[in-house]
């Protein structure tokens, strides 16, 4: 990585950052999970999203373009002296955050939180990450203390690939949320190793 | 970076003119800033003479700070804070780090992933 001011010279900054997204349906506990592992009180940031609405003017046929403000909460984990991990809880207004390109760009991966009382709330997020080819795991938030579905049932319902981990968690609990992030990182490492192995096999075959 | 006669030389460009927050601009001149770009105040840079919004940013950036954190702490939307940070980088008041490799390639760096995993385990 390179550091610089307006030119490439100058003293180094020495710190860079990566991000992980915490997604899922409304009220599933995204901000709760961010709060339980973040070293800072979660902060809130806003972005203006241009959305083209379906409503069209009958006479002109011109699409109605409007701007909406989307807010999200995020936390921070200092990984080491030169690396910071940001956790972004995706906003509740799903149909808007899907248009927030920058949020997804460059994310290491995502945790899709699922609430078994409203399992369909996580489907849109699963679709989104699959389409964007952003690696993710699914964590079932059992904060209400009942495991209504097994991980396999959730996997079937969301039609997930066999390689995608599905785990149970309690987003309020720091250790449980840590475990979820660990599972995500292990999944990312396993994927990367497979990709490297595949590339080597292909190189040999050439 | 240092030893300039004054901050309002010709090279500073639009920085020298007084303005209110972004002066109606909606796009940052730098397009390489994202929400987790880390910035830090240039060493020995007090930003004397700059407008209050810029000074607020410089004060926050005595230690490395992300664009998103600066926006949240100053209660500014990302689009606006990027414009201000962009101005400060152009004026050499701020240094920034370019994105991690995962922004540029599909396959993330193994050492990076391992470092993140180790960091989470240490929490």
From TrEMBL, chain A:
<dbReference type="InterPro" id="IPR027417">
    <property type="entry name" value="P-loop_NTPase"/>
</dbReference>
<dbReference type="GO" id="GO:0005525">
    <property type="term" value="F:GTP binding"/>
</dbReference>
<dbReference type="Pfam" id="PF03029">
    <property type="entry name" value="ATP_bind_1"/>
</dbReference>
<keyword id="KW-0378">Hydrolase</keyword>
<keyword id="KW-0342">GTP-binding</keyword>
<dbReference type="GO" id="GO:0016787">
    <property type="term" value="F:hydrolase activity"/>
</dbReference>
<dbReference type="InterPro" id="IPR052705">
    <property type="entry name" value="Gliding_Motility_GTPase"/>
</dbReference>
<keyword id="KW-0547">Nucleotide-binding</keyword>
<keyword id="KW-0675">Receptor</keyword>
<comment type="similarity">
    <text>Belongs to the GPN-loop GTPase family.</text>
</comment>
<dbReference type="InterPro" id="IPR004130">
    <property type="entry name" value="Gpn"/>
</dbReference>
<protein>
    <submittedName>
        <fullName>Signal recognition particle receptor subunit beta</fullName>
    </submittedName>
</protein>
Automatic annotation (TrEMBL), chain B:
<dbReference type="InterPro" id="IPR007995">
    <property type="entry name" value="DUF742"/>
</dbReference>
<protein>
    <submittedName>
        <fullName>Uncharacterized protein DUF742</fullName>
    </submittedName>
</protein>
<dbReference type="Pfam" id="PF05331">
    <property type="entry name" value="DUF742"/>
</dbReference>
